[in-house]
Design a protein that fits this description.
By secondary structure, the chain is mostly helical. Helix content is about 45%, strand content about 5%.
Length: about 300
């Protein structure tokens, strides 16, 4: 029978997806395969199931396409585990295997901040800051040990919104290289690269904290952490205050009316001069180095992060 639609289109229909899951579950159970169906975060259920079933005598292999699985395995798996993560290949990309314990050893100084790095760098429920990728966040954590204690606030299940805001703002000041004293800035600025406003940043930090706590198994009310229910669905609260003074909006309105009907001669394109930030490829390179260490059992030079 010819398939008249794509997998993505088919599964985008909720009823199709539920019927397919039910049919697949029945087939697996009939074949004697244990099935667990996630009510919330499927990645978290997969990782916790793998951790529960691992011991010194049994090697557990987690197979998936999502790098989120590997991040959760690295941060939640106990030391000296035997878990292997296999990321399925597509087309010309080969399937890759990752020994979780080897990567944990490589990132032993940063592993407790990986959830924060993953969440602030963009994941399923949090958006990334423009041109601030995961490798850059990892470099910030590595180069600024003075941030470490404050970032652990995001791992604490009893942290208050005020503590999250203070810790997050300190990190963002470092990320955007905020000066100690504000002076008149005369250089041309690309608006897309500006940091978020203080109010937008706080809402974003709340959502990051919520996601980290969900990964750590602590269920919090999303509506207390910058989500709002609307028509039965949760939507992010981006800011509760105006992003700029009304006088600035009035000025922008006047300029827009002046330019309306023609091209603005002052319009500047967004120049993407940042080095590509591919965290997944970086993990692949580290994984290759660790595999070579195990195969040769000889010292190797640690690969530096891209500059």
């Amino acid at each position: 029978m010819d398939v008249l639609t794509t997998q993505e289109n088919f599964l985008s229909n909720t009823e199709n997806k539920m019927r397919f899951i039910t049919m697949l579950t029945e087939k697996f159970l009939t074949s004697g395969i244990l099935v667990r169906q996630a009510e919330d975060d499927a990645d978290l259920l997969i990782v916790n199931t793998a951790i529960r079933n691992t011991d010194d005598n049994v090697q557990v292999v987690v197979i998936g396409e999502d790098i989120d699985l590997l991040i959760l395995l690295l941060t939640l798996s106990p030391p000296k585990n035997t878990i292997i993560f296999e990321k399925l290949g597509r087309g010309k990309i080969e399937t890759r295997s990752y020994a979780v314990v080897s990567l944990q050893e490589h990132f032993k100084n940063e592993i407790q901040y990986f959830m924060f790095i993953h969440a602030i760098g963009g994941c399923d429920s949090t958006s990334a800051l423009f041109q601030q990728g995961k490798i850059k966040h990892l470099k910030i954590v590595q180069k600024h040990p003075e941030l470490h204690d404050s970032l652990l606030v995001f791992n604490n299940e009893s942290s208050s919104p005020e503590e999250i805001e203070r810790a997050g703002e300190k990190y963002l000041f470092t990320l955007y290289k905020a000066p100690a004293h504000i002076t008149l800035y005369k250089k041309q600025v690309q608006l897309a690269r500006l940091p978020p406003t203080i109010d937008a940043a706080r809402e974003h930090l709340h959502r990051i904290y919520l996601q980290i706590q969900l990964w750590r198994g602590n269920k919090l009310d999303p509506q207390n952490w910058s989500w709002k229910e609307y028509n039965g669905k949760l939507n992010p609260v981006f800011t509760k205050n105006s992003p700029a003074p009304d006088t600035l909006f009035m000025l922008c309105s006047v300029i827009w009316k002046h330019c309306q009907g023609g091209s603005c001669l002052n319009q500047q394109p967004i120049i993407d001069d940042e080095e590509e930030d591919n965290f997944e490829e970086y993990i692949d390179e580290i994984n290759l180095i660790e595999n070579q260490k195990e195969e040769t059992n000889t010292p190797t030079i640690k690969k530096n992060l891209p500059t």
